[in-house]
Amino acid sequence: MEHRGKAKLDVRLEDGSRSFATLSIPWEPASARTIQEAVEGIAALVKQGRTLKAALTTINTGKTAGVPVAARNNSSEILFAAWQSFGQYKVQMSGEIKLETWQGVYARTEKRLKQVLDSPDAKTLLERAGAVWEPGSRGRQIALQQISAMLRWAVDEGKLPVGPWMPPTKIKAFVGQRLEKAELRTPLTDEQILDLISSLKVESNSSRDRDAAQRWRFAFQLMATYGLRPIEIHFLRIEDKGKQRLWCDYQKRTGGGTTKPRTLRALHPEWEVEWQLIERINAGESLPPSGGGVAEAARRYLARQPAWRPMAESGCTTYSFRHGWALRCHTKYPLISTRVAAEVMGHSPAVHTEVYGSWTDEQVIDDAFAAGIRGRVAN
């Protein structure tokens, strides 16, 4: 602003207080660029630890003042308070997510955020927060998307100053990319799924082991029968329109936008009936907690199961239940088109073909030809 013909700087500090300084630059249109450079220079010096007065002296005279001992910086508390307020907004005000989602899906990001709260600005925060994950990994992408959304919201709400804390419009550079294409994972066969589920110790002497086995058995049955991503077991609902339908409300962010809630279909249908999945969902049967991520929790649980070890050695992961649904769909239900299968799985036909189009081992080829020969049309 103008003050007696000079440019006057009004600074809002992190604790909410204000400070003022007058620059030795005329307040006139021709000085606009000079004023901008001076303000940016003062901001950089203050960030390095100088007081506003010392930074102003340096800018006005060109002489560097001594760097004082920094006062206690409470930016970490302000930043974390913004994160907590963001959670309250998402859960209680906008209703965009459920409390369980905040406590589960966002918990891993919060844990990482606490480790880098002393970052001085948005760019540094995003760089440091993502450093623990591989470039281009899904874990890094999710965490940085959530932190970036929080920063943008907090700036818009006036909880963080716009200068240092407005995140970049695009965070692709912070997420990075994999140097090599992710290795295609192995699908679980029907036999492997049934063997694994039956091996879980639901009759263990330990009540804790029994409870865990029961919860994970239910989770794996859902993942296998409906082709779910691990996290999606916590986003299921029953919609009754004359006929009970199972829906998944999980919305995944992709380069092309956000996926829509979708109706699920059981393959095999008899698994849905035999395992009474609809009835158990309606009854609210307990599932494994989602803290730290369902996929990671499932990986740790399966690593302790002897029946899982040979499957893991062959390349199976917690997503192999979902992969198994896709393989089952195209080998045992060949009349289901790629477009329909992709819709039910919650991704595009292009992604479906890219991910699942290369599963052509000898057994798959033999089965496909056998089915084709049985359906041969006579001349």
Q: How is this fold's topology laid out?
A:
Layout lengths: L1 E2 L2 E7 L5 E9 L5 H16 L4 H10 L13 H19 L5 H6 L2 H9 L6 H9 L7 H19 L5 H4 L6 H4 L14 H10 L7 H20 L9 E5 L3 E5 L4 E2 L2 E2 L3 E2 L5 H6 L2 H6 L11 H10 L5 H5 L6 H13 L5 H8 L3 H8 L5 H13 L5
Antiparallel strand pairs: 1-2, 2-3, 4-5, 5-8, 6-7
Helix pairs in contact: 1-2, 3-7, 5-7, 6-7, 11-16, 17-18
Offer a concise description of the structure.
This protein is mostly helical and 379 residues long. It contains 19 helices and eight strands. Helix content is 51%, strand content 9%.
Largest sheet: 3 strands, antiparallel
Q: If helices are DSSP runs of H or I spanning 4 or more residues, what is the number of helices?
A: 19
Mean pLDDT: 82
Spatial order of the strands in the main sheet? 1-2-3
Q: What form results from the Cα inertia axes?
A: elongated
Low-confidence stretches: 64-73
Q: Helical content, roughly?
A: 40-55%
Integer count of domains: 3
Rg from alpha-carbon coordinates:
28 Å
Q: Hey, roughly how much beta strand do the residues contain?
A: 5-15%
User: What oligomeric state do these chains adopt?
Assistant: single chain
Order of helices and strands: EEEHHHHHHHHHHHEEEEEHHHHHHHH
| First-to-last CA distance | 90 Å
**Given the helix and strand composition, which structural class is it?**
mainly alpha
Write down how many β-strands occur, each being a DSSP E stretch of 2 or more residues.
8
Keywords:
379 residues; mainly alpha; hpI Integrase, Chain A; 3 domains; three-stranded antiparallel β-sheet
